[in-house]
Specification:
The complex is a heterodimer. By secondary structure, chain A is mainly alpha-helical. Chain A has 3 helices and no strands. Chain A has a domain of 38 residues. In chain B, a hairpin with a 2-residue loop joins β22 and β23. Classes of the chains: A mainly alpha, B alpha+beta. The complex binds flavin-adenine dinucleotide (FAD). Chain A: It comes from Azospirillum lipoferum (strain 4B).
Chain lengths: 65, 555
């Protein structure tokens, strides 16, 4: 069974973080929301495994409510 | 408004029992002469069971209502002898296109495979459909159609049901061993029994207009998200016979249904879509709110619910009548066997189990479509719009675009009537699946497998080579002839690659049947009267076949 990988996997964590932040530069909150939604869909398809996605969603939701 | 159809008026004739004041006990009474009740009546007549059909009205469905009829429902009607008339009158189609704004984002083909007798879909006004069914029903001596006969109460006794029926000549009692309640989404029988009809109402309104016009759109299903002519809402277009077109406009929850129905509101919407210079006339207009609801169980003692009385779905996906007709298809052979004393009445519980499974599947699909078309939260709308945006360039996103997942038949995967596979087979014809068609030659004529699956149990035997003792070994033929002569209605056919001169053989010269059923020499399929697969083996085994027949009949 596929499992969500939560150990550190980036070669250069700061670069990745900056990529995420920079991609939203000059966007309104609505535009950012749209970008995020498209990004999630692209990445979800890349993962291609509903179980991993479900696990990620479960972890992401912790503490939100 | 323009009329392309003149409504028949069916006359009320008091039944003999009403005239003479006697109470008669009928084996089966069907309540409701809609598509589902009429289908059930035709199937009972085919099986030699006399049936009384009571309907509160005296004509067919007013307004077009259902338009799209799927392959599986058409296969049932074809078995009952009315399918071809519908196909001949209907608009045959299989391609759907989805637009976002004015760009096409997604296209689907509902029957990419060749060599099927029945098309993926036809469009036909519901009034024609019912008219054809009534015409067919009137040909049968076994069907007693009673118009202007409204059931006002239903009471279950130990071994029968007593109905009170209101007619222009007053109220009288009718008794039945079994009652099929096909009295639609507002079922009064359901209320009489105090049954809950639970589910979800969607907070949206849709304007549905049938317009008469000459237009050159293709015979395809076109669906728009956010079209230029109807911003921020969806729209749908379907071709119907007689130059009638079905237009469907999403209006949103705040729209006033009474106002929106007025021609002065409808005409500008239609003009915006078609262009101001396209002449058209309105034939029928209505504003709907959709819901997905069902009964928990479809059998309540001697009363069985079928069609919209048992389950209701939103129309995106055309899963209403298209799932009600398979209800009738599933129920009638079982009840006919029970009436004949050939199966225990517990077989009817499998009707409920199998068709509740189907209703769940239909409701799930229809709810998901509705959630995509009418997002329920801001974020749901954001994801929906992101899918539509990505779908233009990203193939993966096209599969997420949901403008309605069109009706497909349910496979009864977990049905207790199935005999689980003990041999390995490839392909889709698993136990519980609806049989798929293939071209075959029969008695020297080109025909179809579905025509051989004629409402009885059917055994297909893939003819073996001579090394196994000839195409059909004598002991196999003997055993199958024995079953065919037995108490259950059953026929068997040898499937051959070329003509071998075997009685009833299906010559599979194109090889489609072998391919679609993964047949090898000696393979055996047992198919139910409703054309679903019951069991299959790689080798003939008379005991296994008898056991599977027992299982499929609840014995
Ligand atoms: C806008 C719209 C579009 C649709 N599009 C499609 C589509 O494209 N494809 C599809 O498959 N489905 C579609 N449907 C759904 C389809 O119309 C229904 O699923 C179908 O009519 C159900 O058939 P039925 O026989 O169960 O019930 P109904 O057609 O509702 O028939 C019930 C019958 O029972 C009778 N009756 C009611 N109460 C009593 C009583 N007490 N005594 C005696 N008789 C009674 C009524 O007179 C009526 O004739 C659509 C529906 C709508 C509204």
């Amino acid at each position: 069974m596929a499992k969500l990988m939560t150990e550190q996997r980036f070669a250069s964590p700061d670069d990745v973080y900056q990529l995420l932040i920079d991609s939203h530069r000059d966007l309104t909150p609505d535009q950012s929301t749209r970008l995020n939604a498209k990004l999630i869909l692209l990445l979800a398809n890349h993962i291609g495994d509903a179980e991993v996605l479900a696990e990620a969603l479960r972890v992401a939701r912790q503490g939100v409510e | 408004m323009h009329a392309t159809f003149s409504y028949p008026k069916y006359s009320f004739t008091p039944s003999e029992e009403q005239r003479t004041g006697t109470v008669r006990r009928h084996p089966v009474v069907v309540i409701g002469a809609g598509p589902v009740g009429l289908t059930a009546a035709l199937d009972f007549a085919r099986k030699g069971v006399p049936v009384v059909v009571l309907d509160a009205e005296d004509t067919v469905s007013v307004g077009s209502r259902a338009v799209c009829y799927a392959k599986r429902a058409l296969e049932v009607w074809d078995r009952l002898g009315v399918g071809q008339r519908m196909i001949d009158k209907g608009v045959v189609w299989k391609i759907g296109k989805v637009f976002n704004g004015d760009r096409m984002v997604y296209q689907f083909d509902l029957l990419p495979e060749p060599d099927h007798k029945i098309p993926a879909f036809i469009n036909l006004q519901q009034y024609y459909l019912e008219d054809f069914l009534v015409t067919e029903a009137r040909k049968s001596e076994l069907i007693d159609l009673r118009w202007l006969s409204r059931v006002i109460s239903a009471k279950q006794e130990a071994d029968h049901v007593v109905l009170q029926v209101e007619t222009p000549d007053g109220v009288h009692a009718v008794e039945a061993d079994w009652v099929i309640a096909c009295d639609g989404a507002k079922s009064s029988v359901r209320k009489m029994l105090g049954l809950e009809f639970q589910g979800e109402v969607f907070k949206d309104r849709f304007l549905i207009a049938d317009v008469v016009m000459k237009a050159d759109f293709p015979a395809e299903r076109w669906f728009w998200f956010d079209p230029p002519f109807h911003r921020k809402q969806s729209a749908l277009l379907h071709m119907q016979p007689d130059n009638v077109w079905r237009l469907d406009f999403q209006l949103g929850w705040d729209a006033d249904p009474e106002e929106e129905k007025k021609p002065e509101r409808v005409i500008p919407r239609v003009q915006a879509m078609l262009g101001a210079d396209t002449p058209f006339e309105l034939e029928w207009v209505s504003v709907y709110t959709f819901q997905c609801r069902r009964l928990e169980r479809f059998r309540h003692g001697r009363i069985l619910f079928a069609g919209d009385s048992a389950h209701q779905v939103s129309p995106f996906g055309a899963r209403g009548a298209n799932s009600g007709v398979p209800d009738a298809d599933n129920l009638v052979w079982k009840l006919a066997l029970v009436l004949d004393g050939k199966a225990p009445d517990s077989l009817l519980d499998s009707y409920s189990d199998e068709r509740v499974t189907a209703a769940k599947e239909n409701i799930l699909n229809s709810t998901r479509s509705t959630d995509f078309i009418t997002p329920k939260s801001e974020m749901s709308r954001v994801f929906r719009d992101a899918v539509l945006e990505l779908a233009v360039d990203q193939p993966f996103a096209r599969s997420l675009v949901n403008s309605g997942r069109l009706s497909t038949p349910t496979t009864y995967t977990d049905s207790p009537l199935n005999t689980p596979d003990s041999d390995a087979f490839a392909g889709r014809m698993v136990p519980g699946a609806p049989a798929t068609d293939a071209p075959v030659e029969r008695d020297g004529h080109a025909g179809w497998l579905m025509e051989a699956l004629d409402g009885r149990f059917t055994v297909l035997y893939a003819a073996a080579g001579d090394e196994m003792g000839g195409p059909v070994p004598a002991e196999v033929a003997e055993a199958l002839d024995g079953l065919a002569a037995g108490p259950l209605p059953l026929a068997w056919h040898a499937v051959t690659e070329r003509r071998r001169g075997i009685a009833g053989e299906l010559v599979d010269s194109a090889g489609r049947l072998r391919e679609r059923y993964d047949l090898t020499p000696g393979s055996v399929y047992l198919i139910r009267p409703d054309q679903h697969i019951a069991a299959r083996w790689r080798r003939f085994d008379a005991d296994a076949l008898s056991a599977a027949l027992n299982r499929a009949t609840g014995r």
